């Protein structure tokens, strides 16, 4: 079967750095997405990786290793507004997105 | 540019009642999707459409019907609601995905449905 694993919840301190991991086992791979979802709101796109390596976008970076079935989202200089759930999704061989359950990130002052 | 809109935002139904959720996008996207999101689970695809007049089943299609009304609009109908269909429903849209591009999915604000 297809599976995306992420930690259920993480806690970090304002101003710090946090890394959210995602491991996947899917039938084929056509890209990996990270989305942010604030409570009661829609998921919004953060980043996309299709080749191995690091993609940097401001305070957020995303890394991919296809051989290990592994990605992480790195958030720097954490702000209170970063408190949200972070969803990892992999596009499989049928070009369907397979979603992880999400990681709830709690930021403390 | 409104992006993806959904109506209604909230709905309470009794078991056996029917309802239609409406989704519209103004980004000229070919693909549209209906997902449900339940606590502790990832988004699950119900049905999707790869273009006007087409629909296809996703991971959890039972109990739902869809219609791609035109390029902009995609509806989801529950013919006889059950408590197991209590969930948050999201509509999303994207450009064609088979061209190898990023083709990000953009989501509507969601409909919170409770079936009693």
* Mean residue pLDDT of chain A: 96
Largest sheet of chain A: 6 strands, mixed
DSSP E strands of chain B, number: 11
Radius of gyration of chain A: 13 Å
Structural class of the secondary structure composition of chain B? mainly beta
Helix run count of chain A:
0
Could you explain how this protein is built, in words?
The complex is a heterodimer of chains A (109) and B (116). Chain A is 0% helix and 57% strand. Chain A is mainly beta and 109 residues long. In chain A, the strands form two sheets. In chain A, strands 2, 4, 5, 9, 10 and 11 form a six-stranded mixed sheet that branches. A five-stranded antiparallel sheet of chain A has the order 1-3-8-7-6, with no helix packed on it. Chain B is 0% helix and 47% strand. Chain B is built from no helices and eleven strands. Chain B has strands at residues 4-7, 10-13, 19-25, 31-37, 44-49, 56-57, 65-68, 73-78, 87-94, 106-107, 111-115. The radius of gyration of chain B is 14 Å and the shape is globular. The mean pLDDT of chain B is 93. The interface between A and B is medium-sized, with 23 and 20 residues.
Short description:
With 109 residues, chain A is an all-beta fold. Chain A contains no helices and eleven strands.
Features:
heterodimer, A: about 110 residues, mainly beta, 6-stranded mixed beta sheet, 5-stranded antiparallel beta sheet, 11 strands, B: about 120 residues, 7-stranded mixed beta sheet, 4-stranded antiparallel beta sheet, about 0% helix
What is the topology?
The complex is a heterodimer of chains A (109) and B (116).
Chain A: E1 3-5, E2 9-13, E3 18-25, E4 32-37, E5 44-49, E6 53-57, E7 60-65, E8 70-75, E9 84-91, E10 97-99, E11 103-108
Parallel strand pairs in A: 2-11
Antiparallel strand pairs in A: 1-3, 3-8, 4-5, 4-9, 6-7, 7-8, 9-10, 9-11
Chain B: E1 4-7, E2 10-13, E3 19-25, E4 31-37, E5 44-49, E6 56-57, E7 65-68, E8 73-78, E9 87-94, E10 106-107, E11 111-115
Parallel strand pairs in B: 2-11
Antiparallel strand pairs in B: 1-3, 3-8, 4-5, 4-9, 5-6, 7-8, 9-10, 9-11
